[in-house]
Each structure stands twice: as C-alpha cells, then as structure tokens.
Amino acid sequence: MNLERVHAEILAVRLIPNVDHGLARQLQLNQYHRSLAIFTTTIDDIGYTALDEATKRADVEAVYARSFYAGADHASGPLSGEFIGILAAPNPDEVKSGMEAVKQTVENDAFFEAVNQDKTHVLYAHVVSSTGSYLSKEAGIKMGEPLAYLIAPPLEAMYGLDAALKASDVELKKFFGPPSETNFGGGLLTGSQSACQAAADAFRDCIIEIAKQPIHY
C-alpha cells in the first residue's frame, strides 16, 4: 500500500553570528560555539531528524531541541509549529551550511505517512542509515550506526513497536512512552540497516492494519 507523504514545513529561521555570553551560558555552549542557527518546524520528529543530518554535513552541533506541547494545531503563535531546534558552530558559515542540511532533510528526505485521506492519521517510520552526533547520543549508540525512528499515535505506537522488535534483530534503545509532548509515542531502534528497515516496515504495516480495523481483536 502506497501511503501519501506528509512533509514538515520550516516556519522561521534566524542566524546569530556572535551569540551573547549570557545566552551562551544558558544554552551551556562550548567556548568555540559563537554562531547559532535557530529554526522552527511544523513536525517535531522531522526536526530532530534534520538536526542529526546537519551534524553529519557541517561542522555544527545540535545544542537545543524541544517539542511543543499538544502539537502544531495548538501552537503558541503562527511561527511556532511543533518544534524548535538550535545549531551551534564556531562561525556563521558553518551554521548556514547546517541550515542547508536541515532544509534539504525537511523538504525532501524525512516525512510522515498518512493512512487516511484527510491526513489526520499518520506515522513516522524513518530509517537513518548512519546517525550523526545528535541521534546517536539520544539513542546511546555509536555515531554512524543505523537507526529506525518509529513514531505513531499512542495505541498504534505500542502495538507497532512490539511488531517491529519481533520482525528483525533490532534493539529498542529509547522509548517514547505515550503521551509525548505532542501526544504520540514510539521509539528509537538499532540494528543493521536491513534489520532497521524490516522493523520500520513491520511498524508501518501494523498502523495500516489498525486503521482498517480499529476495534478488531
């Protein structure tokens, strides 16, 4: 079954070429991190994925990443969305390069999938073939290892994670117990790239099955 892709949107971006010392202290930046890129997106998990991709393609670090409560439909303002991320680097050119990687990931590489026509029932079954510094730290794995990033609504996430773990030789490294800030759930699973892909496929198949017969047991 081919599911329609649901892409995130970058809502706002600002660069700080030379961050103030007071803000740098609050963000617990290293001394060599003088430049920042700040951005918001409409979907948080795509934002986290994009941050990780930026750490692989530019000399940047993800120094701040937060989801907003209740999701983009209940955002605090028109440019808030569901997520805020901050990249830090020694100079403005590097954070610009990091933002280009974020933009590429958000617009083309990472996406949710809809299991119904009005796109209100969605899932995230994204395989990262080689993790950067951000997701590897979050999952407690070595940089460069594969990862299955699996997210869905609460019941679907729990049932889907069980199926994903049974489908291949993968290990659940981080569990997002529902409700998350955005009322979803899921986890980060690691294994070989093929095992992560099999886990993601099993997760997706389960959500499709539940959407078709939600009360069947």
UniProtKB/TrEMBL annotation:
The keyword ATP-binding does not apply. Pfam families: BMC (PF00936). Keywords: Bacterial microcompartment. Its main location: other. This is Microcompartment protein EutL. SMART domains: BMC. One of its GO terms (cellular component) is bacterial microcompartment. Residues 105-217 form the BMC circularly permuted domain.
